[in-house]
Amino acid sequence: MKKTLNKLLEIRVIRYGLTGGLATFTHVAIAFSMLHFFTPSVFLANVVGFCCAFILSYLMQSLFVFQHALTLKNAQRFFIVQFAALLTAQLISELFRDTNSYLRVLLVVLLLPAITYLIHRFWTYRQDTGSPISK
């Protein structure tokens, strides 16, 4: 079992999915906690949740998924991609507003991770943006 798990974790896309799942859980947990304990503002709760999830996601994507050193340039690129993904999610939701709500959510959940993975792979963590971490 451990050997199989280690083999799966060697696959970058698997690590990406796990990291994304953990970041999403973090966003939801923080936002729900903010709503329950601190503020009735969904906007504020989501901003705090997004910020916490962003930090966790950047650290894990850099170190665990793409195995790159942390740099300001990569952090800026990572933010641009993640913020653009957030805007794209809203755009998709608006473009398909007359479509079933569940289908809209599925479109976002299926399309955006694949797109952001490719952008991170070929732009954010391109070789000239930071050195790989030595193994």
TrEMBL record:
- Domain of life where this protein originates: Bacteria
According to UniProt, the name of this protein is Polysaccharide synthesis protein GtrA
Q: Does the keyword Transmembrane helix apply?
A: yes
One Pfam family name is GtrA_DPMS_TM
InterPro entries associated with the record: GtrA_CellWall_Glycosyl, GtrA_DPMS_TM
Q: Where in the cell is it found?
A: Membrane
GO CC terms of this entry = plasma membrane
* Predominant subcellular localization, coarse grouping: membrane
Q: Which UniProt keywords apply?
A: Membrane, Transmembrane, Transmembrane helix
* Provenance organism: Veronia nyctiphanis
Keyword set includes Membrane: yes
List, for all copies, the residue spans of the domain called GtrA/DPMS transmembrane: 15-124
Q: How does it sit in the membrane?
A: Multi-pass membrane protein
